[in-house]
Amino acid sequence: MNDELPLQSQEENHRTKALLRLTMACNEKCPFCNVPVEDYEVRTPPLSDLEALIDQWTEAGEQTLTISGGEPTLYKKKLLSLVERAKAGGMHFIEVQTNATLIDEEFAQALRHSGVTSAFVSLLSHIPELHDELAGMEGAFDLCLRGIDALLDNQIRVALNPVTATQTQECIGDYVHFVAKRLPRVRSVSLSAVQPHGRAAHNLHLLPDYNVLREVLPEAMDIAKAHNIELLNPYCGLPLCVGWSDDLEHCVEVFEAERGGFNTPGLRNLGNKTQGEACTRCVLRTRCGGAWHAYWDVRAGSGLKAPQTLLFPWDEQEAKSPIPSLTIIQDEDGTSDLNHPKLEGAETPNVWLWCRTLQKEKVRSLLSTRCTDIALDTTPSAFLQDRDTLKAVRQLARDVSGWQPQHRILIWIAFRAENLAEVRLLEKAGSLAFALGASGVRLLGNSPAMAGVVHSVVAASGKKDCSFTPSYVDWPTKD
């Protein structure tokens, strides 16, 4: 049999699909399940409600659908009926998320005939005992392999989903080896990881160590590349700094961020992540939601470290950054329109507006652009006296305060102090900047007088982002 599946069963991207949960019931009892049946009052919605959702999506022009659970194959007739309805409505890619234990040759044929093009199968480990332990079901490993074989034999594309736990975190490379040898027709593995939600919140010993995963992932990626297996980092996978910073093209959050962000109908996991202190100056902040809220509480962000620190427009090494940024320079007098054409089509993770002043009536126009960071380059005296700029900084900070962290525009303020009079105003200007909502303050200068006050200014900022740079790039002059 051909190892390659027909092209019509494959998608060209990995954006999140419309998600339909057929039932929350499941025949397995995974101790890490983040959507356990016991959390749902209505375990299986009426068929009419599910049909209405599919009709809504097809009328909106959706082309892809994921039917999940629980375990959707518990209700075989209902599943087949919903797939047929989605296909008749124009959906070309229909995926079933399943543990595959209830799929035999006959049912796999029926799934293919109804319109299923792919299956997302939770093969949790290549070691039978570990798979059964994590599935909470004896004999699950053999049944899962039987189901995978049946799906592949019926030309249904299979992607595997090993939910990495403490027991399996050091075996990712061996897992990929197993897939290459035992399941050579499988070309995609989605590396989910246990998240501290649902049942896992009561079994935190299952939560993998991000420090370990950062070390083992590169080897697994090399093995996958050697066998032409695609490894994916899904939304329920890992922060980009945990092994993925050199392979952004296979990270779902990056796809979403670059194409408009989390607007797929049915997606219900918004707001579950946040960024911490380690993330604020990460060059990939705008492409990553950070870590689960509970991970910061349980592990205090252990293992999270920026793979590349954000470089400011006044940093001399900015041009040598492995991950480039775009800097748009405002006119010296600050009168230019903030709706710069480059702010609309920018594709770099960081898009800077480097400016001398801000105007409240114009700054809100940045919210609909690709601008990610503002570099306000000024002096302490000018900042303290410029009421328009002070109002604009406060307004922008308020506008983005409720946004997801990766979508916020951050404000960084550089104070240039080249004489004693300016140095004496630094502490007052810095404190005011943080009070208005600035993300960080940089003190720029070469004057010997700076040394006497820098430590007090940094100390006054507490744990906030504040530093002294004794040399800097001069404000650029335009041709």
Write up this protein.
The protein is elongated, with a radius of gyration of 26 Å. It has helices spanning 47-59, 76-88, 105-114, 128-135, 140-153, 172-182, 210-226, 252-258, 277-280, 293-299, 341-345, 360-363, 380-385, 387-400, 420-424, 426-436, 451-460, and strands spanning 18-21, 64-68, 93-98, 118-121, 157-160, 188-190, 230-232, 273-274, 291-292, 326-329, 351-355, 373-378, 410-416, 440-444, 465-469. The protein has 479 residues and is α/β, with parallel strands linked by helices. The strands form three sheets. The protein has a seven-stranded parallel β-sheet, with helices on one face. The termini are far apart. Residues 1-16 and 261-269 have low confidence and may be disordered. It is 33% helix and 14% strand. The protein has two domains: 7-275, Alpha-Beta Barrel (TIM Barrel); 318-469, no CATH class. The protein contains 17 helices and 15 strands.
Short description:
This protein is of the alpha/beta class. The protein contains 17 helices and 15 strands. It has helices at 47-59, 76-88, 105-114, 128-135, 140-153, 172-182, 210-226, 252-258, 277-280, 293-299, 341-345, 360-363, 380-385, 387-400, 420-424, 426-436, 451-460, and strands at residues 18-21, 64-68, 93-98, 118-121, 157-160, 188-190, 230-232, 273-274, 291-292, 326-329, 351-355, 373-378, 410-416, 440-444, 465-469.
Question: What brief labels describe this structure?
Answer:
alpha/beta, 33% helix, 6-stranded parallel β-sheet, 2 domains, 7-stranded parallel β-sheet, 479 residues, TIM Barrel
